[in-house]
Amino acid sequence: MNDRWSPGIGDPTVIGWLTVVAYVAAGIACIVTARRGPACPGSESRVHGLFWGGVAVMMFALGINKQLDLQSLFTQVLRDAARSEGWYEQRRTLQASFIFAVLAAGLASGAVALRYRAMLHRSMAAAILGLIFIYGYVVVRAASFHHVDLFIQSQILGIRWNWILEIGGIVVVFVAALRAARSRPFNIF
Question: 184: buried, middle or exposed (CB in 10 Å: 19+, 13-18, 0-12)?
Fold first, then answer.
């Protein structure tokens, strides 16, 4: 079996495509929300647009990655570099450091969100909760490259935990964007 990354569809299952569609739908909902002004125009308008625009970019990027499996390409490039540069034997330490860095970045982002929570609309806070679910999935998935697949492959009532984390997070972001967009005028320019 060839473990090399090659361009193609990474998850051609029904759930894989459903997840991609969910990412795209959430991204579109976030764009619509970003284009609509906040409930009270003013200084909130810039934060509102940047927040929802940023979340939209994340949703589209994660949707693209879902099917292109770019994290596997990233892993392959690093594995090749480790072998050619002679530090492959230290890969476990580097993998643990990478996972720790991803986790630390997530915690720092959460701390920033907590710090500015007074500026956040309830829908933004809900979207952050959805992003935390997705981020949790990403961290567990990153760890799974290093033989920690047990959790995301386990099931509850026939539903895999990775579906609960990823799709659940996407749904929370989607619903939060729809709630934020509701009853606000649409700005074309």
Answer: middle
Q: How far is CA 126 from the centre of its chain?
A: 14
Rounded to two decimals, the pTM is: 0.78
SS (H, E, C) 70-139: HHHHHHHHHHHHHHHHCCHHHHHHHHHHHHHHHHHHHHHHHHHHHHCHHHCCHHHHHHHHHHHHHHHHHH
59 close to 30: Cβ distance less than 8 angstroms: yes
Best CA proximity match to 103, nearest among 143, 68, 52: 143
Give pLDDT tens digits for 10-64: 778 888 899 999 999 999 999 999 888 665 555 566 777 888 999 999 999 999 9
